[in-house]
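Open question from group meeting: does this chain pack into something compact, or does most of it stay loose? Before anyone orders reagents, we agreed to write out a predicted structure and look at it together. Recording both the input and the output here so the notebook holds the full record.
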Amino acid sequence: MKASATIPKLRAPIVLVHGFLGFDHLEVCGWKIASYFARVPEFLREAGNRVLIARMHPTGGVADRAAQLKAFLDKEAPGDPVHLLAHSMGGLDARYLISRLGMAERVLTLTSIGTPHRGTAFADWGINTLARLVTPMLSAIGMPYQAIYDLTTTQCRVFNTETADAPGVRYFSIAGRHRGGWHSPEWRLSHAIVTRVEGDNDGIVSVASATYGESCTIWEGDHISLINWRNPLAAYWGECRERSPQYAALVQRLADEGF
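Structure tokens returned:
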């Protein structure tokens, strides 16, 4: 079935915002080989929606990435109201953008997807275990690493006290829930750490941390599956699904709210 038959067209542009270590798309010799939100932009555009895909520094801090997101919006949609769909750290960038960079009048809604609004125990573990080894190497090659600190539970507590929601913006959220296990070896360590401290999680962000705004919907799957990347082994066991219908539901909800 065509996307136009299953998803509404919103009046305002939809902006996709990537997370930590993210990108808009990857190219090799002029050929696009991957999109951060796999197949999602194409699906949304088929229904006539205007979709913008932001690019910020993959390891920059929230304040810097939010400023880059603002510059992107000022260039690509100057003065236009927008809907933000933000994955992982991108949700924190979006909240900073709205509340601390004067963009509340231009952002209609923020739907955060697997965002660690209260931080993640895995970032805490990383700082305590690896920071003394990793940060000097990153400094030596000129790679920012503030993002690692901004995702800790301690820093997110500070962030939340300093970043109040804007009254005119509607906030929604999606949380992922992944069971871990041997068929997803890439999540074994982080899933176990977050489970021990925070409970159910998507492999790196707990359901409790991702829950934010007026409502939270839980999607079964790991953190990367939330942006429609499919783990072949998990897919074989029936634990990885095409997300297009769920993204359609996100946009339908906005349409139902009058947008």
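Observations to bring back to the group:
Residues 10-251 form a domain with the Rossmann fold fold (CATH 3.40.50.1820).
The first helix runs from residue 40 to 46.
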